[in-house]
Design goal:
By secondary structure, this protein is mainly α. It folds into two domains: 139 residues, no CATH class; 127 residues, no CATH class. The protein is 67% helix and 1% strand. It has a two-stranded antiparallel sheet with strand order 1-2. The protein is globular. Keywords: Membrane, Transmembrane, Transmembrane helix. It holds the Pfam family ABC2_membrane_6. This is ABC transporter permease.
């Protein structure tokens, strides 16, 4: 019972920071609305003079782009304002408290991420329902496509969790890495297809991204949703996503053990 209570408290850390700050929630709603409107307008404008580009119709491209914006809300909570990022904890020396709590730091991090994703899921589902009702995005082609998409999205978020964990674990091995974190986050968004579908990039770029886990986080599930990846090919993509989950889980577990040896108080 105590473990469940500790887990619940850890999971609601960052969401509570949002819920207790109404202006921040208003800003999120405004930013999300503007992003959806601008992205939908941009892709509609790009397809104004053409029917199909890079194998995508206008409605497919708009659906992909808008859902990428909504999916970005799953892990986009403002941890920095609450001084709850690993980078801040390392800088101020408060990371040591992660090792003094009843929960191991690995479990605390996982539970906190779970709470963030569930909170972000509420935003994403709300936005999806509004966009679907307004005709901004298309519904899935069939119930089977919807089911495979949900499974792929779950695996994608699992991969994304380990990718973001790996970036945070980098903080244990560097003193000042703000710029490196920004560069890595930008690379993750670019290679996962957040900014634009990967099919619009050169062949060498697509080939390179195929050897990295980033496209498994978002590009694959959204490609299944819009029909770019057929159901007959989805099984192989799901297997690749599952393989990345296993590889990254083993890697981050190994890094956690090494990171514990480097915990020191800096500043504060």
């Amino acid at each position: 019972m105590a473990a469940v209570l500790h887990g619940w408290r850890a999971a609601r850390v960052t969401p509570l920071g949002e819920l207790h700050t109404p202006p921040r929630m208003t800003a999120v709603l405004l930013r999300l609305t503007v992003q959806v409107v601008l992205v939908a307008s941009l892709w509609r404008g790009l397809y104004a003079q053409t029917g199909t580009t890079a194998g995508l119709s206008r409605d497919q491209a708009v659906t992909y782009a808008v859902m990428a914006v909504l999916a970005s809300r799953l892990r986009e909570l403002d941890q920095y304002a609450g001084r709850d990022t690993v980078l801040q904890h390392m800088h101020f020396g408060t990371i040591v408290y992660w090792y003094l709590r009843p929960l191991p730091p690995q479990r605390y991090y996982a539970l906190r991420a779970l709470g963030e994703q569930l909170y972000g899921l509420a935003w994403a589902l709300g936005g999806y329902a509004v966009c679907l009702a307004a005709g901004v995005v298309e519904p899935p082609g069939s119930a089977a496509v919807a089911g495979v998409f949900v499974l792929s999205m779950l695996l994608g978020q699992w991969v994304l969790y380990y990718v973001m964990l790996t970036l945070d674990q980098l903080c244990f091995f560097t003193i000042r890495n703000n710029s490196a974190m920004l560069i890595l986050i930008f690379a993750q968004n670019l290679l996962s297809g957040v900014y634009a579908p990967l099919w619009f990039f050169p062949d060498w770029f697509i080939t390179l991204s195929g050897f990295l886990p980033f496209q498994a986080t978002l590009s694959v599930p959204l490609s299944i949703y819009v029909g770019r990846i057929e159901l007959s090919d989805a099984g192989a993509q799901l297997a690749i996503q599952a393989a990345w989950v296993i590889v990254l889980a083993l890697f981050t577990r190994w890094v956690w053990r090494r990171a514990a040896r480097r915990v020191i108080s800096q500043g504060g």
